[in-house]
Amino acid sequence: MARTPRNTLNPELIVRTALELMESEGTSAFSLRGVAAALGVGPMAIYTYFRNKDDLYDAVRNHLMGLLPPVPADVPWQDQVRAVCRSLRSLMLQHPCLAQLLSGRPLSGQETARVAEGLLGVLRAAGFDKERAARTHTTLFTYVLGATSWEIQMAAERRDPEAWRRLRTTMESLSATEFPTVVDLAPELARTTGGDTQFDYGLDLLIAGLDMQKPRAT
Amino acid sequence: MARTPRNTLNPELIVRTALELMESEGTSAFSLRGVAAALGVGPMAIYTYFRNKDDLYDAVRNHLMGLLPPVPADVPWQDQVRAVCRSLRSLMLQHPCLAQLLSGRPLSGQETARVAEGLLGVLRAAGFDKERAARTHTTLFTYVLGATSWEIQMAAERRDPEAWRRLRTTMESLSATEFPTVVDLAPELARTTGGDTQFDYGLDLLIAGLDMQKPRAT
DNA sequence: ACGGTGTACTATACACCGTACGTTATAGAG
DNA sequence: CTCTATAACGTACGGTGTATAGTACACCGT
């Protein structure tokens, strides 16, 4: 009975395999049995290192958040804010599963604190008081989360020919008398479901709002 | 063999039952077999009216979106935008499953068009050009989605004593030298994870940004 | 009144999931 | 060289969505 040798597994290896599977198979098709199989190991072997599936999810999320680059120094705070938001977005785009990991699981752990620390530090240094800094942080974070999750979902839908066809036909069958504006703006709506331009549009709105709320900064 | 009578089921009844189950059991604990049992019917009976589970999800989402109130007329466009965003948010708070239905499933169907029509109509009437109207619509929608999903998840976490304790201890164990700002702002961060004030803070930032981008309105 | 027909629901079955429990072989300590 | 802790295994249970086939009822034209 060829038993697999003794120390084939470790948490990092499992996390890496899990991440690969989520990205190739899609988050919903991901399963503990799948990652065990990919590691050439029985399903229960995972439980030596993780208490359950959610525990593994959290580990993957933490791993991904650790990849975020540090905040650039020596630029105006507006650009620092932009940089933080953009790098979170581009990490989510690179690893689409991150969107679901962030919005579907309770977050805890150091890595979440790291991104908060960066953004809050920028805001405090720019002169925001404690309350405004915290509120702004939450606002920016949830905007990035919402906008990018949406973009990822739209992109996924466009890739699935069946869903894409259904969406197109629904759009085209909309009564022009009942939904005049939607029909009129159909091309623009299709163009603004994602992309850097769309993301920056909303981000710049927020930053402009911040700027005028706190005009004595520079 | 006491067969259940012939026309006990209809789509609307199934949707209503599914919605009740999602709200009482939580979205993750929801199952086709559960709603079938609640209806006193075999699991496969659902398939007479819905092609599969996702199809039922879509129907529930459509049903909920239909509950959105119309846009108020005869007020400045800023207040109309606020009203639309707030009513979407309060619908999501009333039906927490809607957050997951919106961000986890491709959307299609008339009801999505209805909310888009309302918001786009307001923006066009306020003088936004086609492109800006579409971009603004997407920005506002994704902000509401992200902010409210986050709020719902935080509230759920606070309700689960196990997760809540873990989050508290993680927060308290953060090194004050590694995460000085987070530690310093802990009380503010705890206060700004949700609530009307937090939501309006971000919403007002966006509207302020819109206002200054388009100063010739009123 | 009656047999045929469509259909609303049932029964059975399959593949898969997460994971509780008990077992076993091996790596390292003594 | 033996002992022990533990990493990985096997088995099993209760759950899921759903494909496929079957069944009894409502309605229909005759």
Note down, in words, how this protein is organized.
Two copies of one chain form a homodimer. Chain A has 218 residues and is mostly helical. Chain A has helices at 11-25, 32-38, 53-65, 77-94, 97-104, 110-125, 130-159, 161-172, 180-184, 186-191, 195-213. The longest helix of chain A is centred in the middle third of the chain and has 30 residues, at 130-159. Chain A is flat and about 60 Å long. Chains A and B meet through helix 5, helix 6, helix 7, helix 8 and helix 9 of A and helix 5, helix 6, helix 7, helix 8 and helix 9 of B. The first copy, chain A, binds a DNA duplex (30 and 30 nucleotides) through loops.
How would you describe this structure in keywords?
0% strand; 68% helix; 11 helices; homodimer; mainly alpha; flat; 218 residues; DNA-binding
How many E strands of chain A? 0
> How far apart lie the N and C ends of chain A?
71 Å
Overall, the morphology of chain A is flat
Helix content of chain A: 55-70%
Order of helices and strands of chain A: HHHHHHHHHHH
The residue ranges of chain A in which pLDDT falls below 50 over 5 or more consecutive positions are none
Helix count of chain A equals: 11
What do the pLDDT scores of chain A average to?
91
How is the main sheet of chain A built?
none
Estimated radius of gyration of chain A: 21 Å
Largest binding interface between chains: A-B, 66 and 66 residues
